[in-house]
Amino acid sequence: MTRSTRLFTGAALALLCLIVGLGSTTAVAQQGYRVLDTPQSTDTDAGRVQVREFFSYGCSYCNQFEPLLSDWTAANADRVEVIHTPITFGRDSWAVLARAYYAAEALEILDQTHRALFTAIHDEGRAFQSHEDVAAFYASVADVSEREVMDALNSFAVSSSLNRAERLANAYKVRGTPSIGVAGQYLVDVREAGGQQDMLDVADSLVATESGDG
């Protein structure tokens, strides 16, 4: 891949992160979030609020957001349950990466792979266009074999998780990545909040409200 091709591909992926989808939710722009027309069910422990991140490993903005979200999650571990939800926007390369997330989850190696995959794509310029690419990479960074990764990638459980993620993205009317769903009722994204740290500030406020602290 030539430098110009890499630059074009990177620009295209960045643009895809900002895609505006069809469908509507009730906008509360001055507060930085939208209220879902149809609330989604959540299943969290008592006293904790579900926070769902919609992302893709292929999204450069998600790569920038990941350390911010990681720090925020650690600081709020007692009151939130953060769920990462990879989505594809119908893009084949993103579907491979979404499967990669759920395969790592099934193999219980996310601690070794999650940040590493972002780094490989966005800092090292690596492309993951096939299951074999993912399997070889995971085997190099975690204590798993390529065969184990391939089995997970092609499993019914991973396919089911991927299908559910796409249904959730449609239900939340996700327009771009990263986006944050809070308590199954609100969607926060950069367009509404104004910036990535602002997204987390808005999420803080919504979590406080849902927890009875706001």
From TrEMBL:
Please tell me whether the keyword Transcription regulation is annotated for this protein.
Answer: no
Pinpoint the Thioredoxin domain residues: 16-155
> What is the name of the protein in this document?
Thiol:disulfide interchange protein
- The source organism is Spiribacter curvatus
What GO terms are given for molecular function?
oxidoreductase activity
Q: Where is the signal peptide?
A: 1-29
Q: Which GO terms describe its cellular component?
A: periplasmic space
Query: Which keywords appear in this protein's UniProt record, sorted alphabetically?
Result: Disulfide bond, Periplasm, Redox-active center, Signal
Annotated disulfide bonds: C59-C62
Q: Which family does it belong to?
A: Belongs to the thioredoxin family. DsbA subfamily.
Where does the record say this protein resides? Answer: Periplasm
